[in-house]
Amino acid sequence: MIQIKQLVKKYSSRQGQVVALDHVNLHISPGSIYGIIGLSGAGKSTLVRCLNLLEKPSGGEIIVAGQNLTALSSKELRKARQNIGMIFQHFYLLQSRTVAENIAFPLEIAGTPKKEISQRVKELLHLVGLEDKAAAYPAQLSGGQKQRVGIARALATKPQVLLCDEATSALDPQTTLSILNLLRDINQKLGLTIVMITHEMKVIKEICTDIAVIHEAHIVENGPVESVFIKPQSDIAR
Ligand code: ADP
Ligand code: ADP
C-alpha cells in the first residue's frame, strides 16, 4: 500500500543543515496496522508531513496505492490527498461547526452533492458510535468523542490509508483503549491500512501488526510486531 524508498528530508537552519530523514525505506502492506515509534526529535513529524504532502522530500520516493507522490501536479496532489485520511493529537475540529458539519467538511470541499453528504455523514456517525451527537458542538464533547469525530471526518472521502499522528496521546488510558478498539474495528471492517505515529509503546503493543523504530533520522528496526519483540529490545523501543 505504501512504499517509501530512500526518503531524505533536509532542513536548512541558521545552525546549518539538519537531516531529519536519512535514506528511510519502509514497506507498508495493505490492511496492516503499522506503528512508527521514536523519541522526540527522531523524525516522526517530518515523515508524517512528507506522507500527507505538506512537505516536499529532498530525495527518494513515496508510492501510495501505486501512485508516486513525489511526481505529481498540483491537481493530482489534491486528489492523492483524499486517499490519505488523517487524525491528530489535538483533533483540530472546527469549533463553530456541529459534529455533523465537521464530518461533512471534507466532502463539501470535494464538491460532493448535498444529498450524498447527508447520507454519508449518517453512515460515518454510525461507524464511530456518535449518532446522538450529530447536532452537538466540539466544546460539548469529551476527548474520546472528539477523536471519534476526527476519525469520521478522516474517513469521509473513503481513503485507503488512515494516518494517525499521536492520535491517543491526549487521552486517558481507558479512552485510549476505546479509540484503539475502534481503529481495529475499522481496519477489519473496511480493510483500511492504518499508520500510527506514536511515542507510546503501549499503543504499538495493543493493536499494531508491524512496527518500525525511528531514531535520529534512521529506521533502526522494523518488521512484524512478534518478530521485533522476540529480539532483545533496543533502548529506543522500550
Ligand atoms: P519528531 O516528530 O520525531 O519529534 P521531527 O520530525 O519533528 O521529529 O524532527 C526531526 C529533526 O528535524 C529534529 O532535529 C528537528 O529539530 C528537525 N526539524 C524539524 N522540523 C524542522 C524545521 N522546519 N526546520 C529545521 N529543523 C527542523
Ligand atoms: P501534534 O500535536 O499531534 O504533534 P502538530 O501541531 O505537530 O500536532 O501538527 C501535526 C501536523 O499536522 C503539522 O504539520 C500541522 O501543520 C498539520 N495539520 C494541523 N492541522 C491540520 C489540518 N486540519 N489538516 C491538515 N494538516 C494539519
Automatic annotation (TrEMBL):
MF-aspect GO terms: ATP binding; ATP hydrolysis activity
Positions of the ABC transporter domain: 2-238
GO annotation (BP), single: amino acid transport
Entry keyword set: Amino-acid transport, ATP-binding, Cell membrane, Membrane, Nucleotide-binding, Translocase, Transport
A cellular component annotation (GO) from this entry: plasma membrane
Extent of the signal sequence: none
Family, per entry: Belongs to the ABC transporter superfamily.
Name of the protein: ABC-type metal ion transport system, ATPase component
Range of the intact protein held here: 1 to 238 of 342
